[in-house]
Write a structure and sequence with these properties.
2 copies of one chain form a homodimer. By secondary structure, the first copy, chain A, is an alpha+beta fold. Chain A contains 4 helices and 13 strands.
Amino acid sequence: MTIHPAPTDAAPAEAFKAGMALLAGAVTIVATDGPGGRAGFTATAVCSVTADPPTLLVCVNAGSSAAPAFAANDQVTVNVLTPDQAAVAQAFGGKTPMAARFGAGWVPGSSGAPVLEGSLVVFETRVVERKRMGTHDVMFCRVCAVHVSSATPQAAVWWNRAMRTLA
Amino acid sequence: MTIHPAPTDAAPAEAFKAGMALLAGAVTIVATDGPGGRAGFTATAVCSVTADPPTLLVCVNAGSSAAPAFAANDQVTVNVLTPDQAAVAQAFGGKTPMAARFGAGWVPGSSGAPVLEGSLVVFETRVVERKRMGTHDVMFCRVCAVHVSSATPQAAVWWNRAMRTLA
């Protein structure tokens, strides 16, 4: 094993990122609409918190172009992607202007936040709490509705700096 | 798509769990040792929060047998498993008594918390904050050291109620 010791209290950011590149994560698009405008970004930092009440969390870079909308809006969707939707992950992960990200397939969910048709799963949520940690805000999201695809499940996963398929 | 509407403010726990089963997650063992004793559990609810300072989070069921040790100890490791370590995930995920979980391959890390040799990645951390959310505690963990395996990377992923391999 390559050991990166801790000369100070914290590991170097580079070692942290190299390690995190090997932590597999589902590829999702986190989206919002409301008074702060429509926005979305590709995220793998999404996880379940508790089923009672149903709650998940999402980490958002507070310096990103999407951040102001997520700070202003409480209605947020988490769209879990299939391998067929890889191009959407690309559009929402780069420098594409926000207005150009939302192409075909997006419809308003019951809360008004955007839902991507054909997703493996969509969670419609309401942000109940936000917590700043370093460069990121952690959004705790109460899940109001869940849409599960009726197709044979396939998932897009980000691991070792590339997109992978689970089927 | 099967739509589970929200008659109240929250989706039914069953719909939430069915959706979450399709959110892929890396299989990890989260472990601790210290004044509260040695403990560990299998977790997929682990994600990166910020690289500055390097921080990840872990959700722990506050009602689990491992929870008291994690409430008392600040030294925590996150051991990201390879497919070869599936039996370890089994041992730490069920009703196995805590003392019987730690078999061969566990060594004390630099902080004293247990490190599983042969893991894909090990993050040695110190809990800097805990936050209760429903049935779970979210532990925010400052990463002090990162160990990356020098073997060809392979990852164990939990998805659609089964273990999968990424390579």
